[in-house]
Write a structure and sequence with these properties.
TIM Barrel; single chain; eight-stranded parallel β-barrel; 578 residues; six-stranded antiparallel β-barrel; Thrombin, subunit H; 26 strands
Amino acid sequence: MNPPLTLLSPARDLSVAKAAIQAGADAVYIGAPRFGAREAAGNSLEDIAALVRYAHPFGVQVLVTLNTLLEPEELPEAFDIARQLYHIGIDALIVQDLVLAEVLFRELPALRLHASTQCDNRTPEHVAHLRDLGFKRVVLARELTLDEIQAIHEAVPDIELEAFVHGALCVSYSGRCYMSEALLGRSANRGCCAQMCRMRYDLLNADKQEILDDSGEPIHQRYLLSLQDLDRSQYLAELIDAGVTTFKIEGRLKDAAYVTNITAYYRQKIDQIFNLQSSIINVGFSPNPTKTFHRGATDYFLHGRTRPMANFQTPKSTGEPIGEIVRVRDARRLVVRLHEGIALHNGDGLCIGDLGFSVNGITQLSDGTTEIFTNTPLTVSADAQPKVSRNYDIVFLKSLSAERRVPVDVLFEATPRGFRLTYTPLDGRLKPLSAEFEATFEPASNPERAAQTIREQLTKLGDTIYEAHTFEFRAPSTMPFIPISQLNAYRRDTLAMCQYAAPERQTTHLSPADFRYTTTKTAGPLMTCRYCLLFELGHCRKTNPLRDEPKYLRLQNGTTVRLHFDCRRCEMQILPLE
């Protein structure tokens, strides 16, 4: 029995998508040639078609993102891309632009649409509206608590709910960030976000002077909006109980190593919950999310407002904590006390705050510490014994391997005119592969050996995606002798039936006159965030009010924006200067 949910993994390109499938994804999402929310992650129609052919025999769905807001003149082209994707045989299209969605519902009603998280899906009323429009699934806002997710599910039980469980976080509600467009002309809703939340800022008081932190240091050029990465791996059962039907991993710009590691990690978690043994995924490593791109972890409002959510020191991958510096020999030699069980290797990448370097030599010292030779001169003080993290484990990355097979029950049976061979996947979503063959053969001189040969040849599936689970031979009254070459032909001909063919679908073409245009521009805050900088600093106005308002953020180039704290809604807004 399949679980009541799917694991949805990201794909930057065809090779990364294949890695996700091999590591256990139930579905992958990949960018369309244009109009995806990651402008740098577009893929050709030919590659998407190749992915569909690769994924479907495994029972894996292919979802395509076409989820930016569109200019009026772009809508016909976007529809044409959607139409071609429909003919390729994708399983769903993820969209944000409701003008495009309206036309797709009318002209391509068989094309399944999912509402992107860019639609700002936070309330039962909004989700019900999307359901009424025709959407089959909504991708929920990352900021929702378990109670809020459950409330949406109870109010709108007849729509699928997809929730992010891992990966990078936007500090603004998705779809409501206009800061990149306003300050740099790069719209987050058009797929080219400049990632303003990963930039350095000064925090200023009402007099535009830098505010001091609790240690008396100015809050100067820190990554005040840079959130740690989402990690809800410990709460999957709770999310299922709340009504989530799809776990989504963020990472459409990540490489195959990241996708393999994180997908395998969540695949194992899900299989443990459901005690699943219906899929065979041979993972040659121990998945660990800190071993690939990792900024630290937060469950991000799932259980309410908690600290810390951000990392003010760096927006880069910090990886796994491995120890602390106890001495500095010189600019290229550090003495580190490693945590128990940590082994370093030449070529490992380490970081101290925002400072990154590689290991160029290792010496174990008599006092149990480790001397590290670095690839570049460093300016580091051991006075505060700064923490050291490893964000590139060369041995772990070389160990990454995952191989997926589709387990099948094999049935070979006699028929009045010959034989029938059937491979039935244990995954009920996949169709059996069956073929009949006309044949007559001489009786076997050694029936036991003949039966063994039939089993061996018909279950020899090593060069395919299949793996034999059981074998049954319903033999005729007299055991036949079937040459090995003929048995191999039976196997090849039957398995060839798994070749994917795109479904026949009616062609539709639209002209610009078929669209009713609406504006996509929105006036108001540059960002609207559930994340609150005051709370993160330990100065929530509800418990520790500060009268020094308003407050400002200042970029390194001097550009300044104003902060507004809506304590009734527990939201922070970033506003342009008046």
